[in-house]
Amino acid sequence: TLSAQLDFLNYDLQTRFVKLLKCLKEIPNTEQGAYEAAYQFCYNYERPRNYKSASESRGELSKETFWPVFGNPDMITELEAQEHTHTYTTVVNKATLSEDGSIQKICSECNDVDSTQVIRKIAKVQLSDNSFVYNGKTRKPSVTVKDSEGKKISSSNYSVSYSSGCKNVGIYTVTVTFKGNYSGKTTMTYQIVPKATSIKSVTGKKKSLYVKWTKNTTQTTGYQLQFTTKNSFQNANAATITVKSKTTAQTLKKLSAKKRYYVRIRTYKNLKYNGKKVNVYSAWSKTRNAVTKA
After folding, report:
1. What are residue 42's phi and psi, to 5 degrees?
2. Which residues are 243's β-sheet partners?
3. How far is CA 189 from CA 41, 97, 176, 225, 275, in A?
4. What's the whole-number average pLDDT of the chain?
5. DSSP letter assigned to residue 205
6. What does the H/E/C string look like for 141-190?
């Protein structure tokens, strides 16, 4: 084939005719240079019968006929403008979570680029909610995707899949897989938490508090009680105890006498996630308070 012949010529020049190849590379792209290159190639490489006169003829042919068409830059530009009609095809370089992409119209014959449209990278993938309260129904958040310019990316450019279930209290996975003008995948999680409970009463006793709350056993392992002397709960003395879900009252003992304590409660469910035991908690209840007795 022509390609194979050109490959062999290139190999031959680089291995057996190194000096000739160097000479040809140093010849300038001029009218006289066209003569010299053709002469040297014929004289030193082709070596036909009567190679001296044949080399001179080859040089003249290159100078008078070929160089004006193939060697003169101005003539090449003029011929391209007259004869070449661009055939543009659309080439998509997909954007990812880390890099911009592009849509280009490129000539399939000469690689001329007619236009380039930048596809901004994926900058933000967000769930409508990260937490739902259990209600016995399937709970799934929607997904919003934006690019690095803050523009919303159409949902036609990605698909969303959820882990099985999405109904009981637990931790669930959302996988967003990009397509169309985008490439890549990202995974996020959200929770379905147990329904919260509320404190019915807090009664001050001798160096203790008696706390009663509303029972909630649905999708619940137990309750977590927290109490402290500061209503912000932002101190190192805040204490936490855990009780079973069937319990609805608890005495908080060994407290200081004549001291006001603040109490709150939340439900939790113990479950396995990625092979590990974890707790999923409800929101905290409203705070109740009382003063202990001496």
Report:
1. -70, -45
2. 223
3. 70, 18, 11, 27, 16
4. 90
5. E
6. CCEEEEECCCCECCHHHEEEEECCCCCCCEEEEEEEEECCCECCEEEEEE
Axis-axis angle for helices 51-61, 31-41 (nearest 10): 150
Nearest to 213 by CA among 283, 269, 282, 288: 288
Spatial CA neighbour of 193 closest among 266, 126, 265, 122: 266
Confidence of residue 97 (pLDDT cuts 50, 70, 90): very high
Cβ proximity of 201 and 288 under 8 Å: yes
What are the angstrom distances between the C-alpha of 273 and each of 14, 173, 194, 196, 217?
65, 11, 16, 21, 21
Say what the pTM is: 0.67
Q: Distance (Å, rounded) from C-alpha 73 to C-alpha 264? A: 85
Q: How far is 249 from 268, CA to CA, in rounded Å? A: 16
Q: Which two three-digit tokens encode residue 68?
A: 């004006």
Cα–Cα distance for residue pair 86/70, rounded to 1 Å: 20
Neighbours of 200 (CB within 10 A): 13
Q: Tokens 């690689």 identify what position?
A: 111
Name the 3-class secondary structure at 222: strand
Read off the pLDDT of residues 56-91 as tens digits, 9 standing for 90 and up. Answer: 998 898 888 888 877 766 655 555 555 568 888 999
d(CA 209, CA 261): 8
Residue 119 CB contacts under 8 Å (≥ 6 apart), including other chains: 93, 94, 95, 100, 101, 102, 103, 147, 181, 182
> Which pLDDT tens digit goes with each residue over 193-239?
999 999 999 999 999 999 999 999 999 999 999 999 988 887 667 88
d(CA 291, CA 261): 6
* C-alpha span between 103 and 109 (Å, rounded): 18
Residue-wise DSSP of 241-275: EEEETT--EEEE-SPPTT-EEEEEEEEEEEEEETT
